[in-house]
Amino acid sequence: MAALLFQIQSVISKRFRPLLLATGASLLLFFSIASSTSAFFPPKDPGFQPDPEARQVFTETYQQLKQGQLLDLSEVLNQLQHYPLAPYLEYQLFRNQIAYRLVDKDQLTAFLKRHPDTAFESRLKQEWLDYLASQESWESFYALTGSEPLQTSRLECHRLQAEAELHGRSLSWLEAAADFWRQHQPLPSACDPFSQSLKDLGFLNSEDYWQVALQLMRDEETSSAWELRQHLEDEQRQFLDYWRRGRLNPANRLQSVLNGHTASLKLFPELQQEVLNDLLVQHARTHPSQTRQFSQQLADQELITSSTYYNVLETLALRAAWRSAENTLSYFAEVPSEQRSAEGKEWYARTHLRLGNWSRLDSAIHALPEEIQQANEWRYWLAQALIKTDQQSAARELLQSLAKKRNYYGFLAAQELGKPPRMNASPAPLMAKDMAALTDQPGILRAGELFFTGFHEDARREWHYNLSGASSATWQQAAWLAQQWGWYDRSINAIHNAGHQDALELRFPLAHIDALQPLAEEAGLDLALVLALIRKESLFNPEARSSVGALGLMQVMPATGNQVSRQLQLTMHPERDLLNPQYNLPVGVHYLSQLMQRYQNDIILAAAAYNAGPSRANAWQTRLGKNTDPQWVEQITFAETRDYVKSVLAFREVYAWRLEQESRLQLASDTPNQPEG
């Protein structure tokens, strides 16, 4: 812990001197507290002062265990008996033993009893329970769980099975198990034995299976619904098959209905509208024109209600709006205003915005639900509609209100009014008592030690386990602590959990600034833009992985990393090295620089291309025009990219302000005091 405290103390001292100059007397108290290390951190406990040798022994041993090795830990544990992470070695060894089916039940049970309510206890216990269930060791399983429901469906099914094997299938058990079965579909295969028991004992009948199958179909879990067919009555099975096949070929099924083949539909007339609506909506995804014809013909034959008809037309209107199709308004025109959903009303307004129909946009915004009307986005565009329709006074009033806010639309409003952007920054104070209580928690110390030894996944699990249910004040101090450790993504998350949205030093850290500044200068990039992009992409988590495979701080795809690294003559293995800032930052900055050059320094296009790829950005440029502006941004097809661009632009403003403040503070701190007179 001594090494951690030294690092924290030095960073606090460095950070608070310029912060004091920026905020004046209001921080004198906090600065005086920060100057006293004992005020923030409890007395040094010899048991929590890992030396470099202890860290090295732990790190090497833990790495070997994570590779699946089975080691004799007796000597290492004796050497690390005062090291806070020593239990992690036993924890990982037991995980390995479970995987190899070589575990000693008594030793593992004793270990769990020695370490109750810890971050690793819960995970190890779940793996142990899975093992016991696989061995049908129900007595040992139930001894660990008791009668309390478990977190996952898989484990709860095992618990119910254990209870039944040990105590019998009582009436109360059957009722509880049947309720669980009905409410947690689709269930994993681990639940098959107890599901079969319910069926055999008559606590699940065809109606239960039928209602679950219908709900699964509504949730578009078609395969899971079809797996229940063997438990259905003949008519139910026939109807389910009709619906399932209809989803595979909606046009064929809809044409069949128009030709009078409705026998299967008539089996359950109360479901007819739902199924036809579902098939029309499914077909609208790929064949909007044909769907329009089908819906009209079905309505003419009174096979669908007006409500279903209008719902399908709105679906077509929405899909046309997403594509910026020319016939979007004609689709909307066929849907009465009172029949439009909130989403439909919003996209109707967005279509008028795209087309520059300012007078109609005004009325479309006023037709939105009140909550949506009051969103910053629509208040800004209402102001633009008012300007375009010569209602300058009302527009200015709206813009002045918006300009007080720190967000994308607030910054646009401020720029339009010729005012500087409002940051509304408010420091989140360091509180000695709360910080001392936080750093006195063994779990927090374990999280820090895991972070510094490079086991970030375990560190994150410890961090959140020990802060679960924490107060706002505790989360605030946790944000400071994580930032001083250099754990920026957890610092940002912590201050968000604290509800302190104006603490910009914590929400927008100047992380990796020493590496980024020369890279940005060499690439001809605005440093604030680079920081904004990283903040949006990864929250400064160097190990971030996206669902599509993007890696690291700047979320670089391996193929892009491979291409750019060759251009930079940088030898690297993308899947591994992009998780290292040393490689990720030069590659990401260079790629962003290429995009900026490609789009003539147009940040909007470069950001859109960074998020969605150059091919899509090129398509938007072709369709929407080469000159980008806020109205252009609103027409980006993908909601994710549209919001991404807005966030990067807004974050860039915040980082420009942060860098300016830091520069001023640095200048003030470096200026020697001049003699008087």
Automatic annotation (TrEMBL):
<dbReference type="Pfam" id="PF01464">
    <property type="entry name" value="SLT"/>
</dbReference>
<dbReference type="InterPro" id="IPR023346">
    <property type="entry name" value="Lysozyme-like_dom_sf"/>
</dbReference>
<comment type="similarity">
    <text>Belongs to the transglycosylase Slt family.</text>
</comment>
<dbReference type="InterPro" id="IPR000189">
    <property type="entry name" value="Transglyc_AS"/>
</dbReference>
<feature type="domain" description="Transglycosylase SLT">
    <location>
        <begin position="521"/>
        <end position="626"/>
    </location>
</feature>
<dbReference type="Pfam" id="PF14718">
    <property type="entry name" value="SLT_L"/>
</dbReference>
<feature type="domain" description="Lytic transglycosylase superhelical linker">
    <location>
        <begin position="439"/>
        <end position="504"/>
    </location>
</feature>
<protein>
    <submittedName>
        <fullName>Soluble lytic murein transglycosylase</fullName>
    </submittedName>
</protein>
<dbReference type="GO" id="GO:0000270">
    <property type="term" value="P:peptidoglycan metabolic process"/>
</dbReference>
<dbReference type="InterPro" id="IPR008258">
    <property type="entry name" value="Transglycosylase_SLT_dom_1"/>
</dbReference>
<dbReference type="GO" id="GO:0042597">
    <property type="term" value="C:periplasmic space"/>
</dbReference>
<dbReference type="GO" id="GO:0004553">
    <property type="term" value="F:hydrolase activity, hydrolyzing O-glycosyl compounds"/>
</dbReference>
<dbReference type="InterPro" id="IPR008939">
    <property type="entry name" value="Lytic_TGlycosylase_superhlx_U"/>
</dbReference>
<dbReference type="GO" id="GO:0016020">
    <property type="term" value="C:membrane"/>
</dbReference>
<dbReference type="GO" id="GO:0008933">
    <property type="term" value="F:peptidoglycan lytic transglycosylase activity"/>
</dbReference>
<dbReference type="InterPro" id="IPR037061">
    <property type="entry name" value="Lytic_TGlycoase_superhlx_L_sf"/>
</dbReference>
<keyword id="KW-0732">Signal</keyword>
<dbReference type="InterPro" id="IPR012289">
    <property type="entry name" value="Lytic_TGlycosylase_superhlx_L"/>
</dbReference>
